[in-house]
Design a protein that fits this description.
about 300 residues, alpha+beta, seven-stranded antiparallel β-sheet, 23 strands, about 25% helix
Length: about 300
């Protein structure tokens, strides 16, 4: 005979004279419910992180990916039945964020696919990458992130720009044609990434050019926190270029890129995840009560 629970969902449960069938069906249902709760919790975690970083410069939002899982019939005849959901690896969305005007000479945004190249901390061989262009100038004239990592680029020499990347330094003073020391009065970054400093009223010196990197699969970059990324095998090897090369994007001085988090979409996703969690929790409670009634 069939046992039909009087709930919002129906589970045909065939009792065939042994407790094995009942136990298997109960375990199967509990697994399905648990997968629903896990999916909801994972989605809520992603949404919480996206919303918490909605004001973070250059932050890239993440979206959950899930797969249906099915039972496999050994006889090759019985159709497969749903067994809940599996959590797949989250995907990062590297779309362009809105630009916030700041008018700061060293506040830079990248319009396009490129990422700033950062010198790594001591003991790390490969550079880091970021979309955060809020550049700080320290007491020695180095271009640094808020926690002290240098922005890398090519340095201007008498023979042109260097081939290798290195940290960029803007001297605070220089000598004019009369041998007099004059102080820096203005810094300008062009769309190509070229940095020029003006000393006094009209002495202009080219400092160097900020580098940009792009990847064939940026969503596979490893996130390190504080809006930093590093390359992986799946992301591909970085291509290094600048703002005057195709495919890397252009620099825009006086603005920074905001997070690409869409708060409205995130709130909608959060509501759906909360409803899923609430529904799965009620199903779990009903299942427990049904088991108790069956087991007497």
């Amino acid at each position: 005979f069939f046992f039909k629970p009087t709930t919002a969902y129906e589970i045909p449960l065939r009792l065939v004279g042994s407790e094995m069938c009942i136990r298997d069906r109960i375990y199967s249902m509990l697994g399905i419910i648990r997968s629903g709760i896990n999916v909801a919790q994972h989605e809520l975690s992603l949404v919480s992180n996206n919303l918490a970083n909605s004001k973070t410069t250059g932050f890239k939002t993440s979206a959950g990916r899930f797969h249906d899982q099915y039972s496999l019939a050994l006889d090759g005849i019985t159709p497969a039945s749903g067994m809940g959901s599996n959590i797949a690896k989250s995907s990062r969305i590297h779309s362009q964020g809105a630009l916030i005007q700041t008018d700061g000479a060293l506040d830079l945004s990248v319009i396009g696919n490129g990422m700033f190249v950062l010198g790594p901390p001591e003991g790390i061989n490969k550079p880091y990458y970021t979309r955060d262009g809020a550049i700080n100038l320290d007491a020695k004239g180095n271009l640094l992130t808020s926690d002290g990592l240098p922005y890398l680029g090519r340095i201007q020499t008498e023979n042109g720009l260097t081939k290798n990347l290195s940290s960029i330094n803007i001297p605070f003073s220089t000598l004019n044609d009369n041998g007099e020391r004059i102080l820096v009065s203005n810094i300008k970054v062009f769309p190509s990434g070229i940095i020029e400093a003006t000393y006094g009223m009209k002495t202009v010196k080219r400092i160097g050019q900020l580098a940009l990197a792009r990847f064939s699969n940026p969503s596979e970059l490893k996130e390190l926190g504080t809006n930093r990324f590093k390359e992986t095998d799946k992301s591909g090897v970085p291509l290094i270029g600048s703002g005057d090369e195709d495919g890397f994007g252009k620099f825009q001085a006086g603005s920074i890129e905001s997070s690409n988090t869409d708060v409205t979409n995130e709130l909608t996703t959060m509501i759906k995840a909360q409803q899923l969690f609430s529904g799965a929790s009620r199903l779990l409670q009903t299942e427990v009560e049904m088991v108790r009634s069956i087991m007497g």
